[in-house]
Every structure is written in structure tokens, then in C-alpha cells.
Amino acid sequence: xxxxxxxxxxxxxxxxxxxxxxxxxxxxxxxxxxxxxxxxxxxxxxxxxxxxxxxxxxxxxxxxxxxxxxxxxxxxxxxxxxxxxxxxxxxxxxxxxxxxxxxxxxxxxxxxxxxxxxxxxxxxxxxxxxxxxxxxxxxxxxxxxxxxxxxxxxxxxxxxxxxxxxxxxxxxxxxxxxxxxxxxxxxxxxxxxxxxxxxxxxxxxxxxxxxxxxxxxxxxxxxxxxxxxxxxxxxxxxxxxxxxxxxxxxxxxxxxxxxxxxxxxxxxxxxxxxxxxxxxxxxxxxxxxxxxxxxxxxxxxxxxxxx
Length: 307
Ligand code: NAP
Prior knowledge:
The protein folds into 2 domains: 172 residues, Rossmann fold (3-Layer(aba) Sandwich); 110 residues, Orthogonal Bundle (6-phosphogluconate dehydrogenase C-terminal fold), CATH 1.10.3660.10. Helices cover 51% and strands 12% of the residues. It has 12 helices and 9 strands. The strands form 2 sheets. The protein has a 6-stranded parallel sheet, sandwiched between helices. A 3-stranded mixed sheet has the order 7-8-9, with helices on one face.
């Protein structure tokens, strides 16, 4: 046992909160875990599978006396939840979140954070296309990165404690500012998700022409896109609505590159294509060497992916 926070409250009881609860227990990081989810259905499931020590019927009850409160709801719901719990947060507590976008969460949550509370946003770069209270697992954060995004004048001790908490959940921790985080994630996660959604949408349109062939002969590339495109619609709607500028910037660059590749194909410019694919192959090797994926078949995807 190495308790960092006596009581941790999880608001939202889906994939990320569930995985946090399991990993907290694995490492003995808290004495009590309380939780709250919007629907009584999710709360009942959480009680049944003993996801937390206490599942409360209101978010205010869940955060009472908590030393760490983590908002694990879709990005678009963060402000309403913060407004609800703000008056009930304990003086000296740390409030954090796991939202996939940071600048908009900071903007929308900050007004509801009492002066006595340390607000330290975070984003674990680990996830899967699954969602809900059953989907969490204790190894989700192992050897994945968690980005902490401290706001101005963040208390050093509170930051060190949150860093230590995420390290003990299994993560490597990096500190970044919100704008930089949102741009990096637009490149590594948000734009790729949009491209996957588009590709699967195109195939779905084509399926009407080619009947079942798209499904029956789906090759690894397309299968991989469908896995990403199966991600939670609410979460991803909120990501694009809240990381608008960075995503549009990256999609603009993507479109330019796509035109270059289109032109090379039309002109039969094999050298251009070969050089391009050699460069991209090296990026894949870098990811494997950094231990962020395996070289196994099926793209080594298994359960986890960045998000
Ligand atoms: P999830 O499995 O779908 O769980 C979301 C939870 O939030 C559920 O308990 C849900 O309650 C609750 N919720 C949804 N809308 C709400 C609202 N309007 N007000 C209050 N509660 C609401 O989602 P998740 O994958 O854990 O994602 C949670 C957060 O983590 C998101 O901000 C996401 O951007 C971020 N994140 C996700 C991933 C990933 O790959 N999934 C990775 C890193 C970060 P009900 O069940 O009662 O509806």
C-alpha cells in the first residue's frame, strides 16, 4: 500500500474511470474510491461489479471529503459537472480530469473551481474503442503516457502528488501546456480518427454497390480503420467540437499531402511514392522502439490504442 490520496472520487464511470479504479486498487493508492455516473443504469452496474467502494446517487455526495476528484465524462459535459460539484469540493483537494482536449476543458471548468482547490488537468494517452463501466481494466495505463497540463500558479506539491499518482497507475508522465497538447493530439489522435471515420463511411457507401464484399474481404488496413471508427460517438463528437482549430489545421495539411500523393499516382511517379512510404515506415519503427506498440500481427493493436 502506498496511499497518495485517502479518498479518490471518480465522476463518470466508464472505460477511463473504471481503469483508474482497478489500477488504484492494484497499487493501493487510496483508502476509499467513490464514484458517480449520470444514469442509474450505470450506477447499478458499478455497484454490482464493485467498481468503487461507494457509488453515490449525486456527484456532490461522491466528491464529499475527497482528496482527489477526477472528471471522467465526455469533454462537452465537464463544465456542467464542475458547476455541480464546485461548492462541495474539500479545501485543499485536487481536481483533475482525463479529457482528450485540454484548452477548452480548462476554459470551461476553471470558473467553477474554488480558490482553495488545486485544478490540475490531465490526459492519459491510453484507451480503447470500448466504453461503459464493464470496459475498464487495470493495465490500461501501463507504459502509456499521461500528460499533465498545469494551469498558472499550480501548487508544486499538488502537482508532484498527481504525477506520482499517475506513475503508480503505470504511466509515464509528461507536463505540457494546453495549446501544445491540443496540437500534438490533433496530429496523433484526433485527425487520424476523423480519417478513419471517413474511410469507413466511404466503404459503407460503396458496400451498397459491392454488396458484402467490403465486409467479407476486409483487409488489415480497413479492419484497423473500423476499429477506430467504432469509438464512442459522444466522446468523439465532443473532441472535434472542442479541438476545432488544431484539428482543422492538421486536416488542411493532410489534404495537401493527399493531393501530392494523388498527383504522384496520376503521373506514375514511383520515386515519390517510394520515398514517401520509406519515410512513414521509419515513424512506425520509432513507435515500436519507444515501446508504444508491438510488431505483432494485426498491427499489434490488441485492446489498447492512443486516444
Ligand atoms: P465512457 O466509457 O463512455 O464513460 C463516460 C462516463 O461519463 C459514463 O459513466 C457516463 O455516464 C458519463 N457521462 C456521459 N455524459 C455525461 C453527462 N452529460 N453528464 C454526466 N456524466 C456523463 O467514456 P471514457 O472512454 O471513459 O471517456 C471519458 C473521458 O476520457 C472523455 O473525456 C474522453 O475524452 C477521455 N478519454 C477517453 C479515452 C478513450 O480512448 N476512450 C482515452 C483518453 C481519454 P452514463 O454511463 O450514465 O451515461
